[in-house]
Amino acid sequence: MRLVSDVETTSTPAEVFTRRITGTEIEYGITCTDGEARRLRPDEIARMMFRPIVEKYASSNIFIPNGSRLYLDVGSHPEYATAECDNLTQLINYEKAGDVITDRMAVAAEQTLKKEGIGGQVYLFKNNVDSVGNSYGCHENYLVGRGMPLKSLGRRLMPFLITRQLICGAGRIYHPNPGHKGEEFPLGYCISQRADHVWEGISSATTRSRPIINTRDEPHADSHQYRRLHVIVGDSNMAEPTIALKIGSTQLVLEMIEADFGLPNLELVNDIASIREIARDFTGSTKLALKDGSFISALEIQNLVFEHAKKWLMVRPEPEVSGTSNAEIARVLDLWGRMLEAIKTQDFSAVDTEIDWVIKRKLIQRYQDRGGMELGDPRLAQIDLTYHDIRPGRGLFSLLQSRGLIKRWTTDEAIAHAVDNAPETTRAHLRGRILQTADKLGAAVTVDWMRHKVNRPDPQLVELSDPFAVTNPEVDELIAYMEENAASYRN
Question: Is residue 73 annotated as a catalytic residue, yes or no?
């Protein structure tokens, strides 16, 4: 298939572009207070949240029946990794399902605290920075072809990722903390929560140096065909349209890179200095030095990529099986274009119900105007934090959304379905069938992204290396084996 455009292209099978496995990993901030004082340390309340899981599975790292992974991460952060998804709205549903699942665990922990005479409320925050400046992540995963070297792909993608915060940052009030490395900026409002906490462009490290792109080769699929692009620079988003723009725009750029769709070489001289400067410039006018000796603004990079993306949509093949449709990509482009126009004109009224950093900045400015508060006022810091509280009816985000002040991309019904059911269009469907059967029968299983083993009476293993497979006779046999031996699991 030859793609036709006014930029040079190459021919590639349509499925590579329009049907791409994606997933996100969310680390939640956690605290437990009685309204005045902290009741338990973060590690203590996190262990209490996971106590029922450990009692049932003898582990705090499990896969759950909706195909996703739930675990207690380093630093006492509850973490949820979505099941493999192959279209944009599906991914949003499964990420939001993680908020529901972890909040239910927090509610159960509060009930345990009450029974044990400790008391207090458990707070989970879908943000990226705590009160003393420690950062925790929101990671994105994109399945890409093995043919392109990851470092080459990363270099092509890097200018977009560095400037992407303009369109999908979560926003925060930046409070300088002299005790933390790199805290050289004055008090102010930042577009991104993660921008100050990455230290390299491309690296195999995750916690030591926090690169923008992690190169560790863990495809979780057939390693001869696929790579996993692991992006760890993005913010945790609350607003569904912001998630859609973050993931959808990145998928479009990956499609264009793989199709060699004419994106120019925009390698920056200093990735890390650039990402920090952009985070403090609402106009996108920060001039960035390119390795070819020229200069370009952050907004110009975003506009250039956006214009190519609009041309790509004109020739982008419609997914044949499943995947993100062209109609949904058009929704992404509409929001992307409105956001870039808002940055250009500094009139954000067209996006102030859809983009997290804009929504939150407007909210903070309103409180400042009403109360005459300076940006460093602790009351504004509390508003900043409460926006990310995932508890329905308690967090500021949920209150705003319930009043129609934040737009939706999906529905509560779709999210509720994702809480209990695995995606039906990826191999997560097979994992979900195995886990639901094991849960029902009480069978002991050992599961990761690819390998699924029933431990007894005799170990039975099925490996799922094709992330797009939704049927597999070996899985049918494994489920039949569990059902045939159901009596043994009750002994």
Answer: yes
**pTM, full prediction:** 0.94
pLDDT of 100: 98
Closest alpha carbon to 110 in 48, 29, 56: 48
User: Can you name the residues that pair with 200 across neighbouring β-strands?
Assistant: 211
Residue 23 amino acid letter = G
Residue 148: is its pLDDT beyond 70?
yes
11: pLDDT strictly greater than 60:
no
- Average model confidence (pLDDT) across the chain: 91
pLDDT above 80: residue 411: yes
β-pairing verdict for 22-27 and 29-33: unpaired
Residue range 346-398, pLDDT digits in tens: 999 999 999 999 999 999 999 999 988 999 999 999 999 999 999 999 999 99
Determine the Cα–Cα distance for residues 239 and 397; give it in Å rounded to an integer. Answer: 8
Catalytic residue among 73, 99, 196, 356: 73
